[in-house]
Amino acid sequence: MSYQSIDFVLSLWYIIMNDSKEQFSRIYDEYIEKIYRFVFLKVDSRETAEDITSKVFLKGWEAYNKSKNIENHGSFLYKIARNAVVDHYRGKGKIKTVSSDNVPETVDVSMNVHEKAMFNADMEVVKAAINNLKKDYQDVLIWHYLEDMDTAQIAQILDKSEGTVRVAIHRGLKALKNELVKEG
Amino acid sequence: MTEEQIISKLQLLKQVKPNYEWVSLVKNEILGKSALPANPIIAPAPRGTLLNIFRTIYHHQKLAYSFAVFMFMFAGVFGIAQYTLPGDPLFSVKKITEQSQAALLQESNVKTSAESLKKRSNDLAQVVKQQKGSNISQAKQEVKEATKNLANAILKDSNSAKEIAMEIKGNQTLLSFFEDADLKEESEILYKAIDEQMIADLEKVTLSEPQQEIFKEVKILFEEGKYSLALEKILLISN
Protein backbone atom coordinates (compact mmCIF):
# COMPACT_ATOMS: atom_id res chain seq x y z
CA MET A 1 0.00 0.00 0.00
CA SER A 2 1.42 3.37 -1.02
CA TYR A 3 2.16 6.26 1.38
CA GLN A 4 -0.66 8.23 -0.28
CA SER A 5 -3.16 5.49 0.62
CA ILE A 6 -2.02 5.39 4.25
CA ASP A 7 -2.14 9.17 4.43
CA PHE A 8 -5.64 9.17 2.97
CA VAL A 9 -6.90 6.63 5.54
CA LEU A 10 -5.27 8.55 8.40
CA SER A 11 -6.83 11.79 7.17
CA LEU A 12 -10.20 10.06 7.13
CA TRP A 13 -9.63 8.90 10.69
CA TYR A 14 -8.63 12.42 11.72
CA ILE A 15 -11.89 13.76 10.32
CA ILE A 16 -13.92 11.08 12.15
CA MET A 17 -12.28 11.94 15.47
CA ASN A 18 -12.83 15.65 14.96
CA ASP A 19 -16.42 14.90 14.10
CA SER A 20 -16.92 13.16 17.45
CA LYS A 21 -15.52 16.23 19.22
CA GLU A 22 -17.74 18.51 17.18
CA GLN A 23 -20.80 16.46 18.09
CA PHE A 24 -20.06 16.62 21.81
CA SER A 25 -19.29 20.31 21.47
CA ARG A 26 -22.84 20.82 20.20
CA ILE A 27 -24.26 18.77 23.10
CA TYR A 28 -22.21 20.89 25.51
CA ASP A 29 -23.52 24.13 24.03
CA GLU A 30 -27.09 22.88 24.21
CA TYR A 31 -27.02 21.69 27.83
CA ILE A 32 -24.37 23.66 29.73
CA GLU A 33 -26.79 26.37 30.82
CA LYS A 34 -29.53 23.90 31.80
CA ILE A 35 -27.25 21.60 33.76
CA TYR A 36 -25.56 24.54 35.48
CA ARG A 37 -28.95 25.96 36.52
CA PHE A 38 -30.13 22.55 37.72
CA VAL A 39 -27.02 22.14 39.89
CA PHE A 40 -26.89 25.76 41.03
CA LEU A 41 -30.41 25.56 42.47
CA LYS A 42 -29.38 22.61 44.63
CA VAL A 43 -26.06 23.79 46.06
CA ASP A 44 -24.96 26.67 48.19
CA SER A 45 -22.60 28.59 45.92
CA ARG A 46 -21.73 29.42 42.34
CA GLU A 47 -18.25 27.90 42.75
CA THR A 48 -19.71 24.59 43.89
CA ALA A 49 -22.19 24.65 40.99
CA GLU A 50 -19.35 25.29 38.53
CA ASP A 51 -17.23 22.55 40.02
CA ILE A 52 -20.02 19.95 39.88
CA THR A 53 -21.18 21.02 36.40
CA SER A 54 -17.69 20.71 34.93
CA LYS A 55 -17.41 17.21 36.44
CA VAL A 56 -20.78 16.29 34.91
CA PHE A 57 -19.62 17.24 31.41
CA LEU A 58 -16.24 15.58 31.82
CA LYS A 59 -18.00 12.34 32.79
CA GLY A 60 -20.40 12.87 29.89
CA TRP A 61 -17.52 13.27 27.41
CA GLU A 62 -15.79 10.14 28.71
CA ALA A 63 -19.01 8.15 28.43
CA TYR A 64 -19.71 9.60 24.97
CA ASN A 65 -16.31 8.41 23.78
CA LYS A 66 -16.96 4.89 25.02
CA SER A 67 -20.38 4.66 23.41
CA LYS A 68 -22.03 7.06 21.03
CA ASN A 69 -25.30 5.16 21.24
CA ILE A 70 -26.70 7.43 23.94
CA GLU A 71 -30.33 7.92 22.93
CA ASN A 72 -31.19 11.03 24.90
CA HIS A 73 -28.25 13.27 25.77
CA GLY A 74 -30.30 15.57 28.01
CA SER A 75 -31.67 12.72 30.08
CA PHE A 76 -28.20 11.19 30.29
CA LEU A 77 -26.57 14.42 31.52
CA TYR A 78 -29.33 15.15 34.04
CA LYS A 79 -28.87 11.67 35.51
CA ILE A 80 -25.15 12.31 35.94
CA ALA A 81 -25.91 15.72 37.47
CA ARG A 82 -28.42 14.30 39.95
CA ASN A 83 -25.90 11.71 41.12
CA ALA A 84 -23.13 14.29 41.27
CA VAL A 85 -25.20 16.53 43.57
CA VAL A 86 -26.05 13.54 45.78
CA ASP A 87 -22.35 12.60 45.93
CA HIS A 88 -21.48 16.20 46.78
CA TYR A 89 -23.65 16.17 49.90
CA ARG A 90 -23.08 12.54 50.83
CA GLY A 91 -19.32 12.38 50.36
CA LYS A 92 -18.45 15.47 52.35
CA GLY A 93 -21.20 15.17 54.92
CA LYS A 94 -22.38 18.59 53.92
CA ILE A 95 -25.62 20.14 55.07
CA LYS A 96 -27.72 22.09 52.60
CA THR A 97 -27.42 25.78 53.35
CA VAL A 98 -28.59 28.70 51.34
CA SER A 99 -25.85 31.25 50.87
CA SER A 100 -26.16 34.84 49.80
CA ASP A 101 -23.94 33.99 46.81
CA ASN A 102 -26.94 33.38 44.61
CA VAL A 103 -26.77 36.33 42.34
CA PRO A 104 -27.27 35.16 38.76
CA GLU A 105 -24.80 36.17 36.09
CA THR A 106 -27.42 37.60 33.79
CA VAL A 107 -30.01 40.08 34.85
CA ASP A 108 -31.82 42.56 32.69
CA VAL A 109 -29.42 45.47 32.05
CA SER A 110 -32.28 47.91 31.73
CA MET A 111 -33.06 47.51 35.47
CA ASN A 112 -31.86 50.16 37.87
CA VAL A 113 -29.95 49.27 41.04
CA HIS A 114 -33.10 49.17 43.16
CA GLU A 115 -34.93 46.95 40.68
CA LYS A 116 -31.95 44.62 40.44
CA ALA A 117 -31.77 44.33 44.22
CA MET A 118 -35.49 43.53 44.37
CA PHE A 119 -35.16 41.01 41.59
CA ASN A 120 -32.20 39.27 43.21
CA ALA A 121 -33.96 39.22 46.56
CA ASP A 122 -37.01 37.58 44.93
CA MET A 123 -34.78 34.96 43.27
CA GLU A 124 -33.04 34.19 46.53
CA VAL A 125 -36.39 33.66 48.21
CA VAL A 126 -37.51 31.24 45.51
CA LYS A 127 -34.17 29.43 45.53
CA ALA A 128 -34.28 29.08 49.30
CA ALA A 129 -37.85 27.77 49.07
CA ILE A 130 -36.85 25.22 46.41
CA ASN A 131 -33.91 24.11 48.53
CA ASN A 132 -36.23 23.27 51.40
CA LEU A 133 -38.29 20.90 49.25
CA LYS A 134 -37.82 17.15 48.94
CA LYS A 135 -35.23 16.26 46.30
CA ASP A 136 -37.81 14.65 43.99
CA TYR A 137 -40.04 17.72 44.12
CA GLN A 138 -37.08 20.01 43.38
CA ASP A 139 -36.18 18.00 40.30
CA VAL A 140 -39.65 17.79 38.78
CA LEU A 141 -40.38 21.49 39.39
CA ILE A 142 -37.09 22.62 37.84
CA TRP A 143 -37.49 20.39 34.81
CA HIS A 144 -41.17 21.13 34.24
CA TYR A 145 -41.33 24.88 34.91
CA LEU A 146 -37.77 26.04 34.17
CA GLU A 147 -36.67 23.68 31.41
CA ASP A 148 -40.16 23.23 29.91
CA MET A 149 -39.96 19.43 29.90
CA ASP A 150 -43.18 17.47 29.59
CA THR A 151 -44.10 14.66 31.97
CA ALA A 152 -42.96 11.96 29.51
CA GLN A 153 -39.44 13.41 29.36
CA ILE A 154 -39.24 13.71 33.15
CA ALA A 155 -40.58 10.18 33.55
CA GLN A 156 -37.78 8.92 31.31
CA ILE A 157 -35.07 10.56 33.44
CA LEU A 158 -36.56 9.32 36.71
CA ASP A 159 -37.54 5.87 35.41
CA LYS A 160 -41.03 6.44 36.77
CA SER A 161 -44.49 6.52 35.22
CA GLU A 162 -45.98 9.73 33.83
CA GLY A 163 -48.75 9.51 36.43
CA THR A 164 -46.21 9.49 39.27
CA VAL A 165 -44.49 12.53 37.72
CA ARG A 166 -47.79 14.43 37.43
CA VAL A 167 -48.55 13.76 41.09
CA ALA A 168 -45.03 14.85 42.08
CA ILE A 169 -45.40 18.12 40.14
CA HIS A 170 -48.75 18.82 41.81
CA ARG A 171 -47.46 18.02 45.31
CA GLY A 172 -44.19 19.87 44.67
CA LEU A 173 -46.04 23.02 43.68
CA LYS A 174 -48.15 22.78 46.82
CA ALA A 175 -45.06 22.30 48.99
CA LEU A 176 -43.37 25.26 47.27
CA LYS A 177 -46.40 27.43 47.98
CA ASN A 178 -46.13 26.56 51.70
CA GLU A 179 -42.42 27.38 51.71
CA LEU A 180 -42.94 30.72 49.93
CA VAL A 181 -45.71 31.66 52.38
CA LYS A 182 -43.34 30.81 55.26
CA GLU A 183 -40.52 32.89 53.70
CA GLY A 184 -42.88 35.72 52.82
CA MET B 1 -50.85 33.03 46.54
CA THR B 2 -52.27 31.41 43.37
CA GLU B 3 -50.67 28.62 41.36
CA GLU B 4 -49.91 31.07 38.51
CA GLN B 5 -48.09 33.40 40.92
CA ILE B 6 -45.98 30.53 42.23
CA ILE B 7 -45.12 29.40 38.70
CA SER B 8 -44.15 32.93 37.63
CA LYS B 9 -41.96 33.27 40.74
CA LEU B 10 -40.41 29.90 39.93
CA GLN B 11 -39.69 31.03 36.39
CA LEU B 12 -37.64 33.94 37.72
CA LEU B 13 -34.95 31.31 38.14
CA LYS B 14 -34.63 31.05 34.37
CA GLN B 15 -32.39 34.08 34.78
CA VAL B 16 -29.78 31.91 36.44
CA LYS B 17 -27.02 31.53 33.88
CA PRO B 18 -23.38 30.49 34.11
CA ASN B 19 -20.49 32.87 33.56
CA TYR B 20 -19.68 32.94 29.85
CA GLU B 21 -15.90 32.82 30.40
CA TRP B 22 -16.25 29.82 32.69
CA VAL B 23 -18.39 28.05 30.04
CA SER B 24 -15.66 28.53 27.42
CA LEU B 25 -12.89 27.56 29.81
CA VAL B 26 -14.55 24.28 30.81
CA LYS B 27 -15.31 23.45 27.19
CA ASN B 28 -11.67 23.95 26.25
CA GLU B 29 -10.49 21.90 29.20
CA ILE B 30 -12.75 18.98 28.35
CA LEU B 31 -12.54 18.96 24.57
CA GLY B 32 -9.01 20.30 24.29
CA LYS B 33 -7.47 17.34 26.13
CA SER B 34 -6.69 15.27 23.06
CA ALA B 35 -5.08 18.30 21.39
CA LEU B 36 -7.34 18.49 18.36
CA PRO B 37 -8.60 21.89 17.24
CA ALA B 38 -12.33 22.54 17.62
CA ASN B 39 -12.74 23.88 14.10
CA PRO B 40 -11.71 21.36 11.41
CA ILE B 41 -11.53 24.11 8.78
CA ILE B 42 -8.53 25.71 10.46
CA ALA B 43 -6.99 22.34 11.37
CA PRO B 44 -3.39 21.84 10.21
CA ALA B 45 -2.83 19.51 7.29
CA PRO B 46 -3.27 15.85 8.29
CA ARG B 47 0.19 14.85 7.04
CA GLY B 48 1.77 17.21 9.56
CA THR B 49 -0.32 15.93 12.44
CA LEU B 50 0.39 12.20 12.40
CA LEU B 51 1.58 12.46 16.00
CA ASN B 52 -1.74 14.00 17.04
CA ILE B 53 -3.63 11.28 15.22
CA PHE B 54 -1.77 8.55 17.08
CA ARG B 55 -2.32 10.42 20.35
CA THR B 56 -6.02 10.54 19.58
CA ILE B 57 -6.03 6.85 18.74
CA TYR B 58 -4.28 6.12 22.04
CA HIS B 59 -7.06 7.92 23.92
CA HIS B 60 -9.78 6.00 22.15
CA GLN B 61 -8.72 2.38 22.42
CA LYS B 62 -11.93 0.80 21.14
CA LEU B 63 -11.82 2.92 18.03
CA ALA B 64 -8.13 2.21 17.69
CA TYR B 65 -8.79 -1.54 17.57
CA SER B 66 -11.49 -1.14 14.95
CA PHE B 67 -9.20 1.16 12.99
CA ALA B 68 -6.42 -1.43 13.08
CA VAL B 69 -8.81 -4.11 11.80
CA PHE B 70 -9.96 -1.72 9.07
CA MET B 71 -6.35 -1.01 8.06
CA PHE B 72 -5.53 -4.73 7.87
CA MET B 73 -8.62 -5.41 5.80
CA PHE B 74 -7.90 -2.42 3.58
CA ALA B 75 -4.30 -3.54 3.02
CA GLY B 76 -5.43 -7.16 2.53
CA VAL B 77 -8.03 -6.33 -0.10
CA PHE B 78 -5.60 -4.15 -2.05
CA GLY B 79 -2.84 -6.74 -1.74
CA ILE B 80 -5.01 -9.61 -2.96
CA ALA B 81 -6.51 -7.47 -5.74
CA GLN B 82 -3.08 -7.05 -7.36
CA TYR B 83 -3.04 -10.79 -8.17
CA THR B 84 -6.51 -10.95 -9.71
CA LEU B 85 -7.33 -11.49 -13.39
CA PRO B 86 -10.24 -10.23 -15.50
CA GLY B 87 -13.43 -11.98 -14.38
CA ASP B 88 -12.27 -12.27 -10.73
CA PRO B 89 -14.36 -10.45 -8.09
CA LEU B 90 -11.62 -8.01 -7.01
CA PHE B 91 -10.37 -7.21 -10.50
CA SER B 92 -12.15 -3.83 -10.47
CA VAL B 93 -10.17 -2.90 -7.32
CA LYS B 94 -6.95 -3.69 -9.22
CA LYS B 95 -8.03 -1.41 -12.08
CA ILE B 96 -8.97 1.41 -9.70
CA THR B 97 -5.56 1.11 -8.01
CA GLU B 98 -3.81 1.30 -11.39
CA GLN B 99 -5.85 4.34 -12.41
CA SER B 100 -5.11 6.06 -9.08
CA GLN B 101 -1.40 5.37 -9.43
CA ALA B 102 -1.42 6.76 -12.99
CA ALA B 103 -3.28 9.87 -11.79
CA LEU B 104 -0.76 10.38 -8.98
CA LEU B 105 2.21 9.99 -11.36
CA GLN B 106 0.54 12.47 -13.77
CA GLU B 107 1.68 10.57 -16.84
CA SER B 108 0.36 11.39 -20.31
CA ASN B 109 -2.85 9.73 -21.42
CA VAL B 110 -1.07 7.88 -24.26
CA LYS B 111 1.56 6.47 -21.91
CA THR B 112 -1.07 5.42 -19.35
CA SER B 113 -3.23 3.79 -22.02
CA ALA B 114 -0.23 1.96 -23.52
CA GLU B 115 0.73 0.70 -20.07
CA SER B 116 -2.83 -0.41 -19.48
CA LEU B 117 -2.94 -2.30 -22.79
CA LYS B 118 0.32 -4.04 -21.88
CA LYS B 119 -1.11 -5.10 -18.51
CA ARG B 120 -4.41 -6.29 -19.97
CA SER B 121 -2.61 -8.36 -22.64
CA ASN B 122 -0.45 -9.90 -19.89
CA ASP B 123 -3.66 -10.66 -17.96
CA LEU B 124 -5.10 -12.36 -21.04
CA ALA B 125 -1.88 -14.36 -21.44
CA GLN B 126 -2.17 -15.48 -17.78
CA VAL B 127 -5.81 -16.46 -18.23
CA VAL B 128 -4.89 -18.56 -21.27
CA LYS B 129 -1.88 -20.09 -19.49
CA GLN B 130 -3.94 -20.98 -16.40
CA GLN B 131 -6.72 -22.31 -18.65
CA LYS B 132 -9.36 -20.23 -16.87
CA GLY B 133 -11.99 -20.74 -19.55
CA SER B 134 -14.67 -18.68 -17.82
CA ASN B 135 -12.35 -15.62 -17.59
CA ILE B 136 -11.29 -15.57 -21.23
CA SER B 137 -14.17 -13.55 -22.64
CA GLN B 138 -13.80 -10.95 -19.84
CA ALA B 139 -10.04 -10.79 -20.39
CA LYS B 140 -10.54 -10.27 -24.14
CA GLN B 141 -13.08 -7.57 -23.41
CA GLU B 142 -10.51 -5.79 -21.23
CA VAL B 143 -7.91 -5.95 -24.03
CA LYS B 144 -10.49 -4.57 -26.49
CA GLU B 145 -11.30 -1.64 -24.21
CA ALA B 146 -7.65 -0.89 -23.54
CA THR B 147 -6.91 -1.01 -27.31
CA LYS B 148 -9.74 1.42 -28.07
CA ASN B 149 -8.59 3.77 -25.29
CA LEU B 150 -5.06 3.78 -26.66
CA ALA B 151 -6.30 4.52 -30.20
CA ASN B 152 -8.35 7.47 -28.90
CA ALA B 153 -5.40 8.75 -26.86
CA ILE B 154 -3.12 8.63 -29.94
CA LEU B 155 -5.65 10.57 -32.04
CA LYS B 156 -5.58 13.33 -29.43
CA ASP B 157 -1.81 13.34 -28.95
CA SER B 158 0.25 12.39 -32.05
CA ASN B 159 3.68 12.90 -30.45
CA SER B 160 3.93 9.39 -29.03
CA ALA B 161 2.57 7.51 -32.06
CA LYS B 162 5.98 6.28 -33.24
CA GLU B 163 7.03 5.18 -29.75
CA ILE B 164 3.78 3.24 -29.31
CA ALA B 165 4.17 1.65 -32.77
CA MET B 166 7.66 0.43 -31.80
CA GLU B 167 6.35 -0.95 -28.51
CA ILE B 168 3.52 -2.84 -30.20
CA LYS B 169 5.83 -4.30 -32.82
CA GLY B 170 8.18 -5.43 -30.06
CA ASN B 171 5.44 -7.00 -27.96
CA GLN B 172 5.00 -10.54 -29.29
CA THR B 173 2.25 -11.40 -26.83
CA LEU B 174 0.15 -8.46 -27.97
CA LEU B 175 0.85 -9.11 -31.63
CA SER B 176 -0.32 -12.70 -31.28
CA PHE B 177 -3.55 -11.55 -29.63
CA PHE B 178 -4.11 -8.98 -32.39
CA GLU B 179 -4.21 -11.92 -34.81
CA ASP B 180 -7.20 -13.32 -32.89
CA ALA B 181 -10.46 -12.85 -34.79
CA ASP B 182 -12.19 -11.47 -31.67
CA LEU B 183 -9.62 -8.68 -31.33
CA LYS B 184 -9.08 -7.99 -35.02
CA GLU B 185 -11.52 -5.08 -35.21
CA GLU B 186 -10.00 -3.19 -32.26
CA SER B 187 -6.43 -3.85 -33.38
CA GLU B 188 -7.26 -2.42 -36.81
CA ILE B 189 -8.67 0.72 -35.14
CA LEU B 190 -5.42 1.11 -33.22
CA TYR B 191 -3.21 0.52 -36.27
CA LYS B 192 -5.30 3.01 -38.25
CA ALA B 193 -4.90 5.67 -35.56
CA ILE B 194 -1.14 5.17 -35.45
CA ASP B 195 -0.88 5.14 -39.26
CA GLU B 196 -2.84 8.38 -39.58
CA GLN B 197 -0.62 10.24 -37.16
CA MET B 198 2.60 8.90 -38.60
CA ILE B 199 1.59 9.57 -42.23
CA ALA B 200 0.76 13.15 -41.24
CA ASP B 201 4.19 13.46 -39.64
CA LEU B 202 6.00 11.98 -42.65
CA GLU B 203 4.27 14.40 -45.00
CA LYS B 204 5.95 17.27 -43.16
CA VAL B 205 9.51 15.96 -43.61
CA THR B 206 11.72 15.62 -46.67
CA LEU B 207 12.15 12.00 -47.75
CA SER B 208 14.83 10.41 -49.90
CA GLU B 209 13.77 8.82 -53.20
CA PRO B 210 13.63 5.22 -51.89
CA GLN B 211 11.67 6.49 -48.86
CA GLN B 212 9.26 8.33 -51.15
CA GLU B 213 8.63 5.06 -52.99
CA ILE B 214 7.86 3.22 -49.78
CA PHE B 215 5.67 6.12 -48.63
CA LYS B 216 3.59 5.78 -51.83
CA GLU B 217 3.06 2.10 -50.98
CA VAL B 218 2.12 3.05 -47.44
CA LYS B 219 -0.61 5.35 -48.68
CA ILE B 220 -2.01 2.67 -50.99
CA LEU B 221 -2.02 0.07 -48.21
CA PHE B 222 -3.71 2.59 -45.87
CA GLU B 223 -6.43 3.33 -48.44
CA GLU B 224 -6.97 -0.42 -48.92
CA GLY B 225 -7.50 -0.76 -45.15
CA LYS B 226 -4.34 -2.85 -44.64
CA TYR B 227 -3.28 -0.85 -41.62
CA SER B 228 -0.93 -3.41 -40.06
CA LEU B 229 1.09 -3.78 -43.29
CA ALA B 230 1.10 -0.01 -43.76
CA LEU B 231 2.55 0.40 -40.26
CA GLU B 232 5.36 -2.04 -41.02
CA LYS B 233 6.33 0.00 -44.10
CA ILE B 234 6.06 3.27 -42.11
CA LEU B 235 8.49 1.90 -39.55
CA LEU B 236 10.90 1.08 -42.38
CA ILE B 237 10.89 4.75 -43.42
CA SER B 238 11.07 6.07 -39.87
CA ASN B 239 14.03 3.90 -38.97
Structure described in brief:
The complex is a heterodimer of chains A (184) and B (239). Chain A is mostly helical.
Bulk shape of chain B: elongated
Structural class of chain B: mainly alpha
Q: Can you count the helices of chain B? A: 12
CATH architecture group name of the largest domain in chain A: Orthogonal Bundle
What's the level 1 CATH class of the largest domain in chain A? Mainly Alpha
Q: Biggest β-sheet of chain A: count, sense, barrel?
A: none
Total domain modules of chain A? 2
Oligomer: heterodimer
Order of helices and strands of chain A: HHHHHHH
Major beta sheet of chain B, specifics?
none
The poorly predicted ranges of chain A are: 97-102
| Count of discrete alpha- or pi-helical segments spanning 4 or more residues of chain A | 7
CATH topology of the largest domain in chain A: Rna Polymerase Sigma Factor, Chain: A
Structure write-up:
The complex is a heterodimer of chains A (about 180) and B (about 240). By secondary structure, chain A is mostly helical. Chain A has two domains: about 1-100, Orthogonal Bundle (Rna Polymerase Sigma Factor, Chain: A); about 105-185, Arc Repressor Mutant, subunit A (Orthogonal Bundle). In chain A, about 75% of the residues lie in helices and about 0% in strands. Chain A contains seven helices and no strands. In chain A, helix 1 packs antiparallel against helix 2 (about 45-65) and helix 1 packs across helix 3 (about 75-90). The longest helix of chain A has about 40 residues, at about 5-40. The relative contact order of chain A is 0.09. With about 240 residues, chain B is mainly alpha-helical. Chain B has a domain at about 80-239. Helices cover about 75% and strands about 0% of the residues of chain B. Chain B has twelve helices and no strands. Chain B has helices spanning about 5-10, 20-30, 50-60, 60-80, 90-105, 110-130, 135-155, 160-170, 170-180, 180-205, 210-225, 225-239. The chains are: A mainly alpha (about 180), B mainly alpha (about 240).
